[in-house]
Specification:
Strand order of the largest sheet: 3-2-1-5-6
Number of domains: 1
CATH topology: minor pseudopilin epsh fold
Oligomer: single chain
Number of helices: 1
Largest sheet: 5 strands, antiparallel
Radius of gyration: 26 Å
Helix content: 25-40%
CATH architecture: 3-Layer(bab) Sandwich
Order of helices and strands: HEEEEEEEEE
Number of strands: 9
Shape: rod-shaped
């Protein structure tokens, strides 16, 4: 007795292939989502670092400028997930202890998939201010106008919490990440 010639696939074979394809495609989609957030994190880290260095450069350019602006820096808004390039007037440009006023120059919103965070819970940096000629770094807490001559750090984290980057500024103005 001869077997009939079978052409095509059985229902079981088709279901197995569809199951394997579903598993592979779901892993690719989830990988793509986390990769997108990691790319956004790297881009945002680069943008923020460049902006901090730009504030440092602008601060150096104010050294011989007429009275008014003491320096430049970055103001962080953790609630609204943005940061601002600002010029600062301080109570004493040579030995400051308080911010008199700031003038917002540019506003930057943190990319989707990334958020600003404190490096240590409860210890957020509100302002990083560069004062010429060295430039020296002054830090203030969010909502606090008093400034302290010290370095500080800002943390960027993906919304899924799988990756983060810390940008640190020393009291002498060196930026690392």
């Amino acid at each position: 007795m001869e077997r009939p010639n079978r052409e095509g696939f059985t229902l079981i074979e088709i279901l197995v292939v569809l199951g394997v394809m579903a598993i592979v495609s779901s892993s690719i989609i989830s990988y793509s989502s986390s990769s997108r957030q990691q790319i956004a994190l790297a881009t945002e880290t680069s943008k923020l670092t460049q902006l901090i260095l730009r504030a440092k450069s602008l601060s150096i350019s104010t050294y011989d400028a007429p009275a008014g602006v003491c320096g430049y820096g970055i103001e962080f808004d953790y609630v609204n997930n943005l940061y601002r390039l600002s010029s600062y007037k301080l109570n004493n440009c040579d030995n400051p202890n308080a911010i008199t006023s700031s003038d917002e120059r540019e506003v930057f919103r943190v990319a989707n998939g990334v958020s600003l965070s404190a490096v240590v819970a409860g210890n957020q940096v509100g302002n990083i201010i560069y004062l010429p000629p060295d430039p020296v770094v002054y830090i203030s807490a969010p909502g606090d106008n008093s400034v302290v001559n010290q370095g500080g750090s800002v943390k960027l984290i993906t919304t899924n919490g799988l990756a983060s980057k810390v940008i640190s500024i020393t009291s002498l103005g060196q930026v690392t990440f």
